[in-house]
Design brief:
Blueprint: E1 21-28, H1 31-34, H2 37-41, H3 46-53, H4 58-79, E2 88-90, E3 96-98, E4 110-116, E5 119-125, E6 131-136, H5 143-150, H6 153-161, H7 167-185, E7 210-215, E8 221-228, E9 233-238, H8 239-243
Helix pairs in contact: 3-4
């Protein structure tokens, strides 16, 4: 670990990350909880400000800025750098990674993030790849039609075997598992989800050589983690409790 950046605001260190762990941070994307967009803007890069400006709705712009600031702050603790100094590169399908040359980049962990409405999850682990997805449990029009588009034939049969009241939760379990896996692969939806089988039931059915785990970040939400290799121990962390609700990152 390097020395703190001169002039950077002192921040609590990230918990030690063991090789068999995944740290899952829960973040509220509400101004009051996250310190406000003005504070968040201090750590964002020029391209992040440009992207924020392209959002049509202020609500979406605010969520994006608060989420990016939270991601920077979490990762800055793991690599012992200042949040504003971190630089990201993006894969062919948009997956971010820390740019080599950032402080302690050789020790930088894998990470992935997902947000829906005002809730965000940030997953951090050692290893080459990691994916996380988050969805709100909400009524969906034409659930069976959606399932036919994204579920494998076996998954669709599993879904129809569930009681009608359980089918929405079953579909969202399946969807978050697929998204987490595709995000970990780095392909996003360029690989059709219907070609991936992860199961709709209570227990995930991971692809060979992969680990999938369902998360329950809060009532009314579905989420999943994906990583290559063996199962990991999950450590749940609350962003606002850890950082004391302070939004400034520099």
């Amino acid at each position: 670990m390097g020395s703190p950046v001169p002039g950077a605001m002192a921040m609590p260190p990230a918990p030690a990350l063991a090789g068999d762990e995944v740290h899952v941070w829960t973040v509220s994307l509400l101004d009051g909880a996250s310190g406000g967009t003005a504070a968040a803007a201090e750590s964002l890069s020029g391209d992040e400000h440009e992207r924020a400006a392209r959002f049509h709705f202020e609500r979406d712009r605010r969520r994006y800025m608060l989420g990016r600031a939270a991601l920077r702050r979490v990762l800055a603790c793991y690599v012992n750098d200042d949040a504003a100094r971190l630089r990201f590169a993006y894969g062919a399908y948009g997956k971010p990674a820390l740019v080599p040359g950032a402080r302690a980049a050789a020790q930088a962990p894998a990470f992935n993030a997902s947000h829906t409405q005002d809730l965000m999850l940030i997953a951090v682990a050692d290893g080459p790849a990691l994916g996380v997805d988050l969805e709100a449990l909400r009524p969906l029009q034409d659930l069976d039609g959606l399932a036919r588009q994204v579920c494998s034939a076996a998954e669709h049969r599993e879904l129809l075997a569930l009681a009608p009241a359980q089918q929405l939760a079953g579909f969202l379990r399946c969807w978050t598992r697929k998204e987490a896996y595709l995000k970990a692969l780095g392909t996003g939806l360029s690989l059709p989800p219907v070609q991936v089988h992860v199961g709709c039931g209570a227990s995930p059915a991971p692809p060979a050589g992969w680990w999938l785990h369902d998360l329950r970040p809060a009532p009314g939400w579905a989420a999943a983690l994906a990583a290559p290799g063996a199962p990991r121990r999950i450590v749940h962390l609350d962003f606002h409790a850890h950082f004391g609700g302070c939004g400034s990152t520099t």
